Amino acid sequence: MTTAGHNVGTAGIAGDNVGDDVLLDVRNLQLHFPIRRGLMRRPAGYVRAVDGLDFVIRRGETLGLVGESGCGKTSTGRCVVRSYDPTGGEILYHGNGTQPADIAKVKSTALKQYRRAIRMIFQDPHSSLNPRMTLRDIVGEPLKVHGIASGSELDERVASLLQTVGLRPEYMSRYPHAFSGGERQRVGIARALSLDPRLVIADEAISALDVSVRAQILNLLQDLQADRHLTYLFISHDLSVVEYLCDRVAVMYVGKIVEMADTASLFTAPQHPYTEALLSAVPKPDPLLRDRRERIVLSGDVADPADPPSGCYFHPRCPYAQPICATEEPPLRDLGNGNSVACHFAEELDLRGVTAHTG
Amino acid sequence: MTHVEPAPDTTGARVDPDTSPEGSSAVPGGTKRRNNLYTASQWRLMWWRFRKHKLAMVSAIFVVFVYLLVLFAEFFAPFHSSDFDAEYQHAPPQSLHLFEETDDGTRFNPHVKGFDYESDEETWRRTYTTDESEIYPVRPFVHGHEYELFGLITTDIHLFGPTDPDAPMYLFGADRNGRDILSRVIYGTQISMSIGVVGVVLSLVLGIVLGGVSGYFGGWIDSAIQRVIEFVRSLPEIPLWMALAAALPQSWSQVQVYFGITVILSIVGWTTLARVVRGKFFSLREEDFVTAAVLDGVSKPRVIFRHMLPSFTSHIIAAVTLAIPAMILAETALSFLGLGLTEPTVSWGVLLREAQDIPSIAHTPWVLIVPAVAVITTVLALNFLGDGLRDAADPYNK
Amino acid sequence: MVAESVQTSASPELDHDSLLSVRALQTHFPLDQGLVKAVDGASFDIRQGTTLCVVGESGCGKSVTARSILQIVDRPGRVVGGEILFRRQRRGAGKGPDGEIVDLAALDPKGAQMRRIRGGDIAMIFQEPMTSLSPVHTIGNQIVEAIQLHENVSNREAKERAVEVLHKVGVPRAKQRFDSYPFELSGGLRQRAMIAMALSCNPALLIADEPTTALDVTTQAQILELMRELQDDYGMAIMFITHDLGVVAEMADDVVVMYLGMTVERGDVVSIFHDPQHPYTRALLRSIPTMGMGTRTRLNTIKGMVPDPYDRPHGCPFHNRCGEYMPGTCDQIVPPPIDLDEHRQVRCLLHGGAPSSGVRNEVNT
Q1: Which of A229, C5, C36, C127 has CB 3.0 to 4.6 Å from C210, enough for a Cys bridge?
Q2: Which residues cross the membrane (chain B) (predicted)?
């Protein structure tokens, strides 16, 4: 199994595991934006925002997708909800016991049924709610459009949804400008829940919120998952939140997954140097630790996805880089324990993770 | 350090009782006001914001007044625009007297006084003097010439006028045919202002359709429409209008010329509005709430009409208000050059054309000043109103 | 009011190691919707050559406090009370306890003295570098201009110093980058360029308003490291404004916690993190996920939301979210500052200031 094909490695593994527990099976997903130049607007190159992703999301789990800005994590989420049309690959959605459907290739007119099952929570609670609509209209819109409820039944449904996310039903006739960021995000969550989805894509859903409100929303997301058997794809740049919420984590760098593992392994024993650097860069909220730890400070900037370096995209910044890293691209390979990594030297390197500290 | 501490302490203690009575009494009212705010629709928020713009408010009242003049020009004007009296060519403005001095004392009797004149032998120019003995009473709601309001109601009531319909009353003076300038400006307002509105409505339809198509679909359709807009805008405006206006057939009736002129003005006017609409579509397409609507399963027309359009109707209203003055000025310019409307139709441009020659400016300045003041104040008021609307158009940006 | 402040500045009372002392600062915004007391009782000291972190959530007034120090509060905001005492060193005299003490709150915001202090003695960097860098000038020219604005040096000398400072903040190939426009640089490099501009005049105090919030973690780590190095080299004090407690723990010597315009607690970083005294500080520390805690633990939350600025709670601004709320006391009395020891201060009625809490006060102090 470890010798399975390079790029299709995890897809193969996923294929073996495809059983009742897989909800979404993403294979070799690509999203390339053409860079057009000149009068005739011919593509002069491509920005490889997402460049061959393979991963599965199991029913009821939370998969974290982490990486820095421009790594393609948001684009991935947008492909799964088909807000962007992927330029290649498959997104197989396993509904209830039926044949999986490839969301990547469904015609946009036939998407409506999947849009009930796969919903999204946006990052910015200010821009994601139409300021000219009341909460009733915002939360009720999907119910109306899908012909689920109307009239007083709609009002009742909206009221109970608002209650579910911790808002008072009387607020229904208010406009978004009446609410703080945290409350607006609750409205966004209510809208996502209105169609009783199976999979929720949370794209930086708490990044724009105040520290004291984040915890409330994180707890809410957990409660909802338990109550409604939700599956989350949790996209975030904040590793401490990802550790807290996710069962498994995929780390992305310049459009590719460099490491995917269960949360505990990833945080305690990272296999990829980039994961190690990310973990090391997160400031720990304990002043007594700051002199004791050796921080890995990466040099340079994230590679340009329009003009990535040769070989391993991370090699110009990698403290452990060898000559082979500049020439040969490491495939994402299984390490035998369900975790996978894209590094030539994963076995040789002894990388530092995060250890629980006693504050 | 410790020495300083009592200072904030006492201020803290002092501040509290000071604010508490105010605070406690203000809370219920404040909460109610806030509840209002929370359930306020965008139009209500816009109105609150617009209200604060004093100049725009005054302008709005003025513009409403001007449009009332447009609707009821026949009622407001004491005379018809073509009523003439050769007796009173170039008569100067009269003053309206409210009280009459009689032998019994002073009594309330609004009136104007008659004219005497002498003709200069050489220049034929008349010099008017007031004839104190002739008194023509002026009353509100007098009977004058007959007219049909909106082509429906036949009446002869005018807002005000001399009790004797043939009496000379020239509050703003008379032109070379002895026609009342005030009445002519009021009739001119009707034509000029309605050309502005009709022209803008026409450009708006073109602008929204083409701009919307351009902005929503993008791609080559957008490129094609943009090239057309750039081409139209690259043509010099005045020569283009002149060429088009000159091409209107001589045989056309006044009504046909009127619509011909509006169409000509809209040919250029729509490009600005199309750009506004396209730009708004482009920025809104990327807004999260529009993406959210698409992900809700909302159909394309519903996304456009329910989620996108309400976000910029207010901007369009502001853009339209700012486009009207340009239309008015364009019509005035064309008519002034003799390429637009001509007698017997009366527009501000036609009136200004009559004041073209130096002698009339020198000796009968009211022929120029009255229509010019009408144009300037109206255009300014529309601009201030448009500015106020534009500032209020997006009440969610602070 | 002004005369009074001038008088206080004439009789300076600033701790010998303090560079800046903000005392009972009040900055209010009279808006149409009501009076917003953005800062209403902020007090803290910044010691020479150390880092003070000001931490708080949105709307707590931390940015307005910083802007009040430089007298660049957006209209219609105005400093309406309090003092901002600043020890102004003479050029080239080195950083020491001597120097004249000025009350920045009493200076004319547009006056010559304030303009000399701004950018010269006190420099500021922002969250979004593009807002403070001009997009139409090269970064080199902007730094040269900043130097020449405050010091009388030749073009050549200014340019040499600009390249040197760019090199110092870790801009690679500084000579070539001198001629770059801000949009040609990555986010991290822009932030470095802005720091270079701020440092070009060797300020005694650098105010950094959320300088790393818009950056990725790896870039943030670079910038934090850079700021620490520069502090060692230049010996300046830093006032670091952030909402990220992790960054506070990394950077701070002293910490000020703000809530709704008030400094609710201040002290050295270890005491704040390991012995927080104000219920808000405690709740804030409990509510953040910490790495290494493991998965799926439940976070403690602070109930409610940050109140609307037009609708400030009565008494202690935190009382309606506080777990240790004492009815009849906390909703009536604005807590006065209580000194716990020389560098520790807390504004909470549990520690004193309430008529009935005299006993507790003694116990805690």
Answers
A1: C127
A2: 55-77, 191-219, 255-277, 316-341, 361-385
Q: Report whether pLDDT(A112) > 80.
A: yes
C128 pLDDT above the threshold of 50: yes
Q: Which is higher by pLDDT, B144 or C66? A: C66
CATH number at residue B261: 1.10.3720.10
- Among the three residues B145, B174, B203, which one is the final residue of a domain in this structure? B174
Chain B residues 20-49 with a CB less than 8 Å from chain A: 37-42, 45
Domain for residue B164, yes or no? Answer: yes
Counting the structural domains of chain B, the total is 2
Minimal C-alpha gap between A115 and chain B (Å) = 6
User: How many helices and strands, by DSSP H and E, does chain A display?
Assistant: 11, 12
Are B169 and B218 in the same domain?
Answer: no
pLDDT at C65 over 80: yes
Question: What domains can you pick out in chain A, each with its CATH number?
Answer: 111-246 (3.40.50.300)
Over pLDDT 90: what percentage of chain A?
51
Confidence bin at A1 (pLDDT 50/70/90): very low
Containing domain of residue C360, as a range?
Answer: 276-291+298-364
Note whether B291 and B223 are same-domain residues. Answer: yes
Which of A123, A127, A174 minimises the CB distance to B289?
A127
Question: pLDDT-based confidence at A17, cuts 50/70/90?
Answer: very low
Looking at the predicted structure, is the pLDDT value of residue B23 above 60?
no
Average pLDDT, chain B: 79
Phi and psi torsions of B22, nearest 5°: -55, -50
Give A24's pLDDT tier (boundaries 50, 70, 90). very high
- The whole-number average pLDDT for the span C181-196 is 86
Residue C48: inside a domain: no
Q: How confident is residue B9, by pLDDT bands cut at 50, 70 and 90?
A: very low
Domain range for residue B151?
88-174
Asked, for residue B290, whether it belongs to a domain, the answer is yes
Let me know whether B96 and B199 are in one domain.
no
Structural domain contains residue C77: no
Together in a domain, B331 and B350: yes
Number of domains into which chain C is organized: 1
Q: Could you tell me where the beta strands, DSSP code E, fall in chain A?
A: 22-37, 42-58, 62-66, 88-93, 101-102, 118-121, 199-203, 231-236, 248-253, 256-262, 333-334, 340-341
Please judge whether B297 and A115 are an interchain contact, meaning their C-beta atoms are less than 8 angstroms apart. Answer: yes
**Pick from B141, B174, B207: which residue ends a domain?**
B174
Tell me whether residue B14 is in a domain: no
Inter-chain contact A214–C287, Cβ cutoff 8 Å? Answer: yes
Q: Which of A36-50, A320-334, B211-225, C120-134 has maximum average pLDDT?
A: A320-334
Whether residue B184 is predicted with pLDDT greater than 80 in this model: the reply is yes
- B307 in contact with A at a CB cutoff of 8 Å? yes
Whether C286 is in a domain gets the answer: yes
Cβ atoms of C314 and C331 within 8 Å: the answer is yes
Q: Is C117 helix (H, G, I), strand (E, B) or coil?
A: helix
Domain presence at residue C332: yes
In a domain, residue B55? The reply is no
Same domain flag for B200 and B129: no
H or E element in which residue A112 lies: helix A112-117
Q: Are C102 and C113 in contact (CB under 8 A)?
A: yes
Residues B150 and B260 placed together within one structural domain of the fold = no
- Going from the C-alpha of A56 to that of each of A76, A260, B70, the distances in angstroms are 13, 11, 70
Of the candidates C189, C283, C290, which has its C-beta nearest A285's C-beta? C290
When pLDDT is averaged across residues C13-32 and rounded to a whole number, the result is 87
Mutate to test the interface with B, among C16, C80, C314 (most CBs of B within 10 A): C314
- Name the closest residue on chain B to residue A143, using Cα atoms: B296
Tell me what pLDDT residue B5 has: 34
Tell me the backbone φ, ψ of residue B349, rounded to 5 degrees.
-65, -45
Strand partners, A43: A36
ipTM of the complex: 0.85
